[in-house]
Amino acid sequence: MSQKNDNFVDKTFTVIANIILKIFPASKEEKQAFSYYKTGMSAQANGDYAEALDNYYEALKLEEDPYDRSFIFYNIGLIYGSNGEYIHALEYYHKAIELNFCLPQALNNIAIIYHYQGVKAIENNYSELSTYMFDKAAQYWLQALQIAPDNYIEAQNWLKTTGRLSQSI
Asked: Which GO terms describe its cellular component (predicted)?
């Protein structure tokens, strides 16, 4: 049933995106950039990360709008993160939030990477490094929660249990 719903959503998105491309008053480059972005999203959803990256990079060559570019950078970060390439993921998440500081999902993903590195540091008996990584994770989760206070419940619980939740949220 879930696969059926996913296919419906994908098909609906494609139909709506194609209609928007036809009626939206945009330049040829903007439409082409959106087409690459849409194709990249489809490839990413299907797990074809190499094709998705190719399309996202092509979209970046054409897309000039900072807001739209931020989502392209975010999606590139998602791919690198899911492939375990955390340095590249962080690079693209930071590019995304430089252009669009209201991307709590990018801040959350940065925090997740730092938290994961903190866990790895503990496993390898690097106590000071783990504290540093956990503090960095907290910093980004607090920023994400400033933007989206009702999201990231697990992060909120972790922040509370570790004494890192500030009263400013």
From this structure: plastid; thylakoid membrane
